[in-house]
Each structure stands twice: as C-alpha cells, then as structure tokens.
C-alpha cells in the first residue's frame, strides 16, 4: 500500500480532496506554503487560509458536485491571477455558509448562475436572494528587500472613486441589467 501518513487536518483534507489536480495550481501551492510557514512559526491563520480553502471546496462538493466542479474550473482558468483566485475563494466562503442553513431546513437550496449573481439563495417560500460577493484586494507594493519597510496610506470609504466598492457594485448591477 502506498498511503501517505496523515499528520494533521490539512493532510486529511488533501487526502479526501475531490480535485487533486487543483492542489498543483500556483494559488493552492502558495496558500499551502503560507499556511505551513505560519504553522511552523506558531502563528494564527485567520479565516482565509489553506485549510479553509480545502474545506470550502470539500463541503460544496458534498452538497452539489456540479457547483464544486464550477468553482474548480474557475480556479483552473484563473491560473496565477491571485486577485481572481481570491475572489473565487470569497464566493466559496459565502456559499459554504449557506450549506448549513440548507441542512438545517432554514432555506430551500443554493444555486449558481453567473449571469444573475455570484450566489443565489432560494428561501423556503421560493423567493430568491441574489448575493454579490466582493473581495477587496488593495494593490500594495511588496518590499523589494527583506528588511525594507513599506508604508501605505489607504482610504477605504471613498464613494466616488471608480475603485470604490459602491462604484463596483453599481457597475455590476448595471452590467447585469438589474437597474430596470
């Protein structure tokens, strides 16, 4: 038998991961490297980490294999575009939250239709909630040298800048023809 030794929760999640080819993608590899480094340094991971990424896709796969395949395909197409990969990850985090509500009988089901919204929640009475998920990723400069300190001046609540969340939402709503 050629079974790897399972050391921790990450190894277990990888062993049962439904899309092993995704683990070879640059995004997954980077997330794993950061996770293992933080683990070795005894630091906390936050909510957006490699284990969460694996768990989200695993749970989505258990709930709806076609939806999981859709996310897997999007990761494959995104390649090394980290902004797009993080946006997909954000959508999966939101999607995963609603899986439990389906199992608890609080909502009827979850749907995916990229033309309509990122995630569609179908309530018990048949009405639908159309969720748009935004992943705000400022374009911060990476230090060019190991000891370099980079200071940022960031404004998060602008309303008029095209890069503001409000403007992005209005553009997306307009592009989808939802302002009629």
Radius of gyration: 19 Å
Q: Which percent band covers the strand fraction?
A: 5-15%
Proportion of helical residues? 40-55%
Strand line-up of the largest beta sheet: 1-2-3
**Principal-axis shape:** globular
Q: What distance lies between the first and last C-alpha atoms, to the nearest angstrom?
A: 61 Å
Mean pLDDT: 86
Characterize the structure shown.
The protein is mainly alpha-helical and 180 residues long. It has 6 helices and 3 strands. A 3-stranded antiparallel sheet has the order 1-2-3, covered by helices on one side. A hairpin with a 4-residue loop joins strand 2 and strand 3 (128-131). The longest helix is centred in the middle third of the chain and has 22 residues, at 82-103. The protein is globular and about 55 Å long.
List keywords for this structure.
single chain, 180 residues, mainly alpha, 3-stranded antiparallel sheet, 6 helices, globular
Structure summary:
The protein is mainly α. It has helices at residues 9-15, 26-40, 50-63, 65-78, 82-103, 165-175; strands spanning 107-113, 117-123, 128-131.
């Amino acid at each position: 038998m050629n079974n790897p030794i399972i050391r921790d929760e990450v190894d277990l999640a990888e062993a049962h991961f439904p899309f092993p080819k995704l683990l070879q993608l640059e995004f997954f590899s980077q997330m794993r490297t950061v996770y293992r480094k933080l683990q070795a340094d005894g630091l906390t991971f936050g909510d957006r980490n490699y284990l969460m990424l694996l768990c989200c896709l695993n749970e989505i796969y258990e709930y709806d294999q076609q939806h999981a395949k859709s996310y897997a395909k999007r990761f494959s197409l995104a390649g090394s575009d980290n902004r797009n990969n993080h946006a997909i990850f954000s959508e999966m985090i939101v999607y995963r939250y609603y899986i439990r509500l389906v199992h608890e009988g609080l909502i009827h089901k979850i749907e995916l239709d990229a033309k309509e919204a990122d995630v569609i929640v179908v309530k018990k009475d048949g009405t639908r909630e159309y969720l748009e998920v935004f992943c705000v990723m400022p374009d911060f400069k990476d230090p060019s040298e190991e000891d370099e300190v980079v200071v940022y001046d960031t404004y998060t609540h602008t309303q008029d800048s095209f890069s503001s969340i409000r403007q992005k939402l209005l553009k997306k709503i307009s592009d989808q023809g939802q302002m009629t």
